[in-house]
Amino acid sequence: MTTTPLRGAGGAGAATVAPSAEHLPRRPRTWARQPWGLWAAGAVLTVVGIALVAPAALATHDPYALDLGASLQPPGGEHLLGTDVAGRDLWSRVVWGARPALAIGVGAAATSLVLAVVLGVLAALGPRLVAGAVDRVIEVLFSFPSLLLALLLVALLGPSAWTQALAVGIGTAPGYARIIRGQVRAVRSAPYVEAAVALGHTRARILRQHVLPNALRPLVAIAALSVGQSIVWASSLSFLGLGVAPPSPEWGALLDAGRAYVTHAWWLTVVPGVVVVALALAATTVGNHLQAALERSEA
Questions:
Q1: Would you list the domain boundaries of the chain?
Q2: Tell me, what DSSP letter sits at residue 207?
Q3: How far apart are CA 108 and CA 29, in angstroms?
Q4: Could you tell me which residue, 9 or 128, shows the higher pLDDT?
């Protein structure tokens, strides 16, 4: 413990005790920031990765093979997670559904981040008229509920995998654009940028060497968070009948197909729902740990 003289009302001899580093308040550690949370996320992502690269290694049946004699069988026995109304093995359909679900989720996240970077940089660094116009566009889009915006876009463009990815990407872009805009503006006023201006560096060189590399550092963590969010929203659109059509085993389509039997065949909705939530939580956990690592490196 160290003491520091305090001038003022306490007199010349008064002193305050400065807390040592170990007594400083720490940021609360949620489950997603715990080490075991990262291990759990890694396990989920490993299984999903195998399903993505080699689904035949995990699947036990043909995901499209019909067997009406085995319709709506509960989990257990030959069918680990049960069967659907057409007798198709649910475990195999969930495994093969990883490809379309992740393709849509990653495509939506990529669309969102590209739009966010373009809009955020223009709003922060563009000419005054351009920056003002882009600012208004970002705020207007951000004022809409993102899922509602995605629903409107899919309704206009028609339900398909690529429109689903595009709609979710556009719907989530305004929030990330505001983050990028704030980062760029903060870095632009940093002392090392002002020093580069004083040294006579060109605007393009300052942007390339100083502003963009530092402002876009959080992009890796944002990307992981965006993938998790996009998978949930894409599955929500499919659940509402605005995504990939049956008989595709995409997870949202499985949820949509199973809701008619939820009272007597709960596994048709619970299993794909748990898979979507688990993957979204895994991506969010990875994003939180990446964000924490960036915060430690900047401290």
A1: 98-298
A2: I
A3: 29
A4: 128
